[in-house]
Amino acid sequence: MLTLRHLAIDTVRENVAFLNRRCTRYHVEDFLGLGRVEVRNDGRSLLAVLNIVDDPAIVAPDEIGLSDPAFGQLGLAEGSAVHLVPPTPPESFELVRAKVGGAALTDDQLAAIIRDVTDQRYSKIEIAAFLIACASFMTTAEVLGLTRAMIAAGTRLQWEGLNGVSGGTIADKHCIGGIPGNRTSMIVVPIVAAHGLPIPKTSSRAITSPAGTADTMEVLANVDVPVERMQALVREAKGCLVWGGHVRLSPADDILISVERPLAIDTREQLVASILSKKVAAGSTHLLIDIPVGPSAKIRTASEAVRLRKLFEHVGDRLGLTLEVAITDGSQPVGRGIGPVLEARDVMAVLRNAPAGPADLKERALLLAGRILEFDPAVRGGSGNRRARDLLESGAALAAMEHIIAMQGPPPAVAALGSLVAEVASPADGVVSSLDCYRLARIARLAGAPTDKGAGIDLLRKVGERVRRGEPLYRIHASTNADFTFAQAFAAENSGVAVA
Amino acid sequence: MLTLRHLAIDTVRENVAFLNRRCTRYHVEDFLGLGRVEVRNDGRSLLAVLNIVDDPAIVAPDEIGLSDPAFGQLGLAEGSAVHLVPPTPPESFELVRAKVGGAALTDDQLAAIIRDVTDQRYSKIEIAAFLIACASFMTTAEVLGLTRAMIAAGTRLQWEGLNGVSGGTIADKHCIGGIPGNRTSMIVVPIVAAHGLPIPKTSSRAITSPAGTADTMEVLANVDVPVERMQALVREAKGCLVWGGHVRLSPADDILISVERPLAIDTREQLVASILSKKVAAGSTHLLIDIPVGPSAKIRTASEAVRLRKLFEHVGDRLGLTLEVAITDGSQPVGRGIGPVLEARDVMAVLRNAPAGPADLKERALLLAGRILEFDPAVRGGSGNRRARDLLESGAALAAMEHIIAMQGPPPAVAALGSLVAEVASPADGVVSSLDCYRLARIARLAGAPTDKGAGIDLLRKVGERVRRGEPLYRIHASTNADFTFAQAFAAENSGVAVA
Asked: Which family is it part of (chains A, B) (predicted)?
């Protein structure tokens, strides 16, 4: 028996146990070779990766330390006596081994794997094994099975009693991402809500990009909204733009992504399962997927986009979703701003019908909103875009946005544009021939976005526009000298803008 | 800048950095999403998985803690100022992604991956990705390339000046394992050494089995021998039986195995690359591989064994090894004892030509030794077995073993047979029809083997032997009450012996 100790170490979605090397109750080497231990005390059990500690101040020889998530999951009080036993790997991992060997898994088998993943019985290397086996080879039936399993493993939002224009329709949109400044959701949601179609939009914060919709919306309003409040809000305002972190939708997806992201292995199959599991769990019935295509976007060719579209349609249909896919231009950033404050400025300019508002952001939002509006049986086929334009240009969308902002409450802090400003000049007379989405995003991040909401890039020239040598291509905004210097140095190396 | 702190936590072949959640110099969330950080200070750099700490006693907000292996690898003094930068994943991981996508990798590409693995630039999930991609699909050329890359990434033992019977021949043997009691090495090595053929045998300790050759040899002699001493020893005694842990041969293999083992994903390709890289690095020129086949062995069918044999031959040939494969009976344990002391007893009984010595262990050792002796051009084809028997029955092998034991020195502790003894009785009159290798190994481990050298199982009946109801099938030996009770309970559930 060892005494349980809670270590204030967050091992980020993996259970880790810390054992003193001079532990006298157990043979440390036995467990070490296996890489894991099972921690037990009457009826409760936890599987954890093993780390060895030499410092008795962290863990004494008669103690076992558990990392923060592991301690919480075991659910015993600090000081409890616990046994260690050799780990029994999750039974479902046998199925992963079969998959590695080339087997296609059934719905039940995928469900067993996903249940164990959700219960954190899988270590990160076991999750990686599952992901790579799926990335190597996955049938369409498996994509569907995986999606269903992920939906079943979490909670599912209910939207009964919503008074929309169309009984029971819950609209949603999702962009697969990769294009800086592509903040259409913040225009589409108020347009669709103004029409009366419920559209409860949850968004993520940026992980590797300079701004997610949640980051940008947070310039204007509070986005940290509990589920019940979000439901009340949609009942009242028809739409919302909140951070998705409070909703335990498809928790298995969050765990899989925590391993997928550092590996940067992104397959069509996993993308579809991830997005559709979240959307079905969120209670959406009608979904528009936006796939931008461009040389520096996630999807680089039209044929890739079509293959992805078909997989979305196939799986979406079988899940009972009404699903549409829009393949859009992803050849350059959308709008002028890259970074939360700058993007919020662009969004509000479009909603206010300001003459200086970026036309590309507006037209793209209208295109997407129009297709969503056509989910409403009362909207005549082909007239969705017109209806969207009316709602935007009449100010109805702005009013809806102001209603949503008022309902969500004020932002946690006032965000101002970064006061350190540098202009990046054109090296030649000519026409802008390309903007590198990846490079510009990187510069905006170095400038401090999204953590520093006022940091980013303000594009002064887009593709096809004329520029003279020495004229500015874009401005870098930052708030701290360190970030400012980093971003400028990186831009000096390669601005991300080609002038020909 | 943060202050570097050395944490006495062994994260077992993975670099881990510990950052305080309230770190003010950096945005913790930025790194958290990426899962890793790069720690830098003029010219030195280390890639580490990120854990978050809430307890300032472990890591203060202005500090960064590194786990024991990571701290050693960075090589800076405690208290040094270091930067954190977003991680640059190892460039070679792009090749792993290509492999996941179905590409076959070239020798150079595999070498780049293995170099980064050896330098611990890969996280465990990245290693898992590489292993699973290889397990899904690997060409024979890739197995060869991987083996070569693993050899090149470590040191290679030199055996110049060895005065063997055959100039330059360094013999070796390896059993792929899985059969309890199969301690042929401890008989084969003294026979071959007695013949005058150098056979420097390094062995592992048991990880999941009740005894490895190193554990059993340690009952008789010291096995913890540094490389230089081992070389001197072989020069003098022609053979040795030491633990391989001191020799940094194919360090990439050790790292890969630390991820492979918990995943229990064991492909032919990885097995061949792992074994042959170690053997070539050990300087072996002539190698005998023993593949036991049986229903509870690692290899279950003759056709599987043949496929494995061909892969060994193919890769071995191209590495310039003289390689032979023996496919042997793996249907039941070899000898009578399972556990270090009991197995050492069997080995010494065979070497002493004791009438009670297990005949199956003796005949198997002679078969293997005979094939190795035929590596000597002076030994007539087909007469190796006869020569081996002469060396054993004349006492020459025993003398060689005594010489090796004297050279290696006395064991670290005297190991005695466990004094707690329980007999497991036959449930019926009949003939023993099968012994379950896996089950019996498990019981011996529960009894305390290999950590408790005197624990284990002493088989009183083997397959084909008659037994009457109530007569003992085997004895369980243990030293502590807890182990004794566990092993007995597990044996009572299912003894692992079928009587028909």
From this structure: Belongs to the thymidine/pyrimidine-nucleoside phosphorylase family. Type 2 subfamily.
pLDDT in tens, B302-340: 999 999 999 999 999 999 999 999 999 999 999 999 999
Edge-to-edge strands, sheet with B420-425? B337-338, B456-459, B472-478, B420-425
Backbone angles phi, psi at B430, to 5 degrees: 155, -160
* Residue B14 touches partner A, C-beta closer than 8 Å: no
- With an 8 Å Cβ cutoff, is A17 touching chain B? no
Which superfamily does A93-152 belong to? Transferase, Pyrimidine Nucleoside Phosphorylase; Chain C (1.20.970.10)
Contact B12 A52 (CB under 8 A): yes
Fold of A2-85: Barwin-like endoglucanases (2.40.40)
ipTM: 0.85
**CATH code for the structural domain at B420-499:** 3.90.1170.30
B8 with A135: Cβ contact below 8 A = no
What is the rounded end-to-end Cα distance, in angstroms, of chain B? 73
**How would you class A45 by CB atoms within 10 Å of its CB: exposed for 0-12, middle for 13-18, buried for 19 or more?**
middle
Side chain identity at residue B96, one-letter code: V
Chain B touched by A44 (CB under 8 Å): no
Contact criterion met (CB below 8 Å) for A332 and A297? no
- Residue numbers in A near B8 (CB within 8 A): 53-55, 58
CA atoms within 13 A on the CB side of A295: 7
Per cent of chain A over pLDDT 90 is: 75
Whether residue B450 has a cis bond before it, omega within 30° of 0: yes
CB contact under 8 A, A89 and B264: yes
Q: Which residue of A has its CA nearest to B260?
A: A125
Angle among Cα A479, A214, A410 to the nearest 5 degrees reads 80
Strand order in the sheet with A466-467: A466-467, A430-435, A497-499
Number of H helices, E strands in chain B: 18, 19
Could you tell me where in chain B the CATH 1.20.970.10 domains are found? 90-154+248-279
Cα A185 from Cα A361, distance rounded (Å): 10
- CATH T-level topology, domain A171-244+282-408: Pyrimidine Nucleoside Phosphorylase; Chain A, domain 2 (3.40.1030)
Measured in Å, how far apart are chain A's first and last C-alpha atoms? 73
Q: Please name the member of A11, A53, A262 whose beta carbon is closest to the beta carbon of B36.
A: A262
Kindly report the nearest CA distance between residue A84 and chain B, in angstroms. 13
Chain A (122-181) residues lying within 8 Å, Cβ to Cβ, of chain B = 123-129, 131-133, 135-137
For B263, the closest chain A residue by CA position comes to A126
Q: What is the least distance, in Å, from the CA of A51 to any CA of chain B?
A: 5
Model confidence over A83-105: pLDDT tens digits?
888 787 899 999 999 999 899 99
Please give the positions of B annotated as active site: 266
| B457-491 pLDDT per residue, tens | 999 999 999 999 999 999 999 999 988 998 999 99
Nearest in space to A241 (alpha carbons), one of A189, A278, A195, A181:
A189
A-B contacts at Cβ under 8 angstroms:
153
CATH node for B90-154+248-279 = 1.20.970.10
Q: Is the pLDDT of residue B176 over 90?
A: yes
B289's tokens: 């591989």
Mutation target vs A (from B59, B85, B136; most A CBs, 10 A cutoff): B136
Residues of chain B with CATH 3.90.1170.30: 420-499
